[in-house]
Give the backbone structure.
Amino acid sequence: MDKENFTIKCFSNSYIGDDAAVLGKHVFSKDIFAQNSHFRLDWLSLEEIGYKAMIVNFSDTIVMNARPKFALLGLSLPRNFTPQQIKELSSGINRACEEFGVKIIGGDTISSALLNISVSVVGELNGRAVIRKNARFGDLVAFTGKLGGSQKGLNSLLRLGQISKNSRFKKPILRDKFFYEAAHLINSAMDISDGLNADLVKLLKASKKGAKFTKKLSRSELSSGEEYEVLFTFNPKNLNAIKRIAAKTRTKINIFAKISHKRLRQNARSHHF
C-alpha cells in the first residue's frame, strides 16, 4: 500500500498535487527532513543537515517558478543537544537562507528523541506558475544536470565509507537561474526527489499523458532520489531557445523522452531509505 498517496487523498482538494500550492501570486510548501529517514547524524554534520533541510524545500518553490521569500521552522531537537550543537544546526539553516534571500519569520521547537526539521516556505511567483499537469502531446521531456550522484553517495555511506563535502547527497545543486529564465518556455515541471522514474510517473499521471523514451538511461539515473534536478517538458519549437538559456546559465540539459499516449510503467519505489 502506498501510504503517502493514501494520506494525501484523505485531504484531497484543488490546491494539492504539485510541489507547492498556488494561492494568487504566492506559493506555499512544506517538507519534513527527518533523522533516520533522510539522514543520519554520523553521515552529515549538523551544519550540513541544516543547510540541506532548507535547500530541498527551496527546490519545491523554484520549480513552481516562484522565489522563496519566507520560511517557518518546526524543530524537534534531541534532549541531549548542547547549545553549541543547536548553533551549528542553525548556522547551516542561516547559510541556505542567506544564499536564497529567505527570512525565517517564526516556528516552534520541541524536545524529542530524534532530530526532525519541518520547513514551510512562502514564495512569490516569478510570472505564471509552472505546474505538473500541463504536459502536452509532442512535448520533449528533459532533466537538468546529471543524475545518480545522490544514490552513489548514499551507497557509500551505507557501506560505512566516506563522501566528499560536495557530494550530491550532502549538497544538492538547485537550477534556479536556468529555471527562472526558461520558465516561460516550459509547459510542466517538478523536481526530482524520489527518483526520475518515480517522479516522471507522477508528472504523467497529473497530465493524464504517457511518454516514450528516446534515450536509454542507466538504472542509477532512473532510480537515484534526492537529486533535486529539474524534470520538465516543453514544445520542440522552443528547443533552441532552451539550449541558449542552458548555455548561458551553464546548465546541462538531457532530453530523454517524448510525451505520447504510451503508458509508462512504475517500477520504482519512493526514495526514503
